[in-house]
Every structure is written in C-alpha cells, then in structure tokens.
Amino acid sequence: MRESVVLCEGYWDRAFWAGWLLHMGCQSLKPPPGKPVFDPWGKVVKGGAYAYLSKSGGFLRVVPLEGKGDLVSVAQGLLTERATRPLARLVLNRDSDKVAHAVQTHATNITDYAANIVPSDGSFVANTDDELELDNGATKVALIRWEANDPTAPGLPDQQTLERLVCASLCAAYPERGRCVQAWLDARCEPQLFTVKAFAWSYMAGWHAERGCDDFYRCLWEDALVVQELEARLRASGA
Prior knowledge:
Elements: E1 3-8, H1 11-23, E2 27-28, E3 50-53, E4 59-64, H2 71-80, E5 87-95, H3 111-117, E6 124-126, E7 132-134, E8 139-146, H4 162-173, H5 175-186, H6 196-207, H7 212-219, H8 224-236
Parallel strand pairs: 1-4, 1-5, 5-8
Antiparallel strand pairs: 2-3, 3-4, 6-7, 7-8
Helix pairs in contact: 1-7, 4-5, 4-6, 4-8, 5-6
C-alpha cells in the first residue's frame, strides 16, 4: 500500500515519461475506454494522471500540472498525507528554463525546495544522490530538471527545457535534421520568434507527423539511436 509519484509540468512531459517508463520495463495501467484505473487505496486515478506498475510491482503515478505554479503546493500536500497514503518516492520534474551556457549564480536542487515542501512536523536529510530522505528513508524526494548542455548548434533552442533535451538528442542521432530544421525556421516568410516549441514541433512535423504531437514525445523511446542520446543527457543532468 505505497506509491511513487512524478509531478511534471504538463502533458508533453507526461508523454515523454510514458515512453521512458515503458522503455525501462514498466507496465502501463491504461484501461480500456470507459473503464477506470484504481490506485492502491481503491481510488480512481484521474486528473490527467497516468498509472504504471514498475518491474518490481510498485505502483507509480505520473501527474501533469499546468505549469510550475502548483508543483510545490501539490508536493507539500502529498508529503502531508504520507501517514495515511505512504509515499515511497516523490519526483519533482520541471524545465530548468535557464539559458544554455550562461553563467549561473545558483543551481537549483532539491534542497532549495525543502523549506517549502517538507511539513513543519517532518525532518529530513539530504543523501549523496541529491535526494531528501524523510522518515528514516521511507520516503525519498528528488528533483529532475530537463536540460542538455550541448553546444549551440543549428536546430537547437537555447532555453533549457524538455524541448532542448529532445532536440539535442535528435540532432546528435541524426545531424542533418538539425540543419534542415534551422533552414526551415530561417526561411519562414514572416518574422517569428524562435521558441522552444517552434523547434520541437518542426522535428515532429518533419519526421513523425503520422504520430501526432503527444505520441511524438513517446515514440522517441522507440528509436535506439535517439534513446542512446537521451540516456546520455539524462545521466549527465542527474535525472
């Protein structure tokens, strides 16, 4: 009667997690249309959350939030409820949002959230994996930042986000695609901003249009060349 929860920023993050978790051997608990999925306490999994079983049989919930605003408050609520809903692990997942290669005066880590998310009656220690451990390690809290420290290149946005992580991995696996995407963006007939989504959706439209937007982030984990590049960057960022 325990669960692990990933709190992520939105639905594209949820799709990326879906591909990643299935790649790692988790089992999706997505029900047939019209049928509910229940958590370990018999309550329906809802609110856009996806549920999985890990390879060891643990229950895992991925919860998409609308932006970062709710991340801390939802995390605090889950930790407050852990006495009645035991929480094995809580992962806070967000875009770094920093500009790649800019001088950073302060790197956000999980201890920066500690004062806001740990209930006032709880104590914690930080372990060597940059996690918070509560209740003598019964609950662990971690932070995963989407980022990729690749050098500036054609087809690669500068803002550290899930989109940059994905674009960097695609460019490394298929170098010509980055140049094609940059040429397309540069050739647009009306001046447009080079947003992170402009880059990411260009790769989707160019090579994964039949999969659609949501499945684009999921199907990346079906390509062995892209998986190799994704995993290298996720390891480098500590994810």
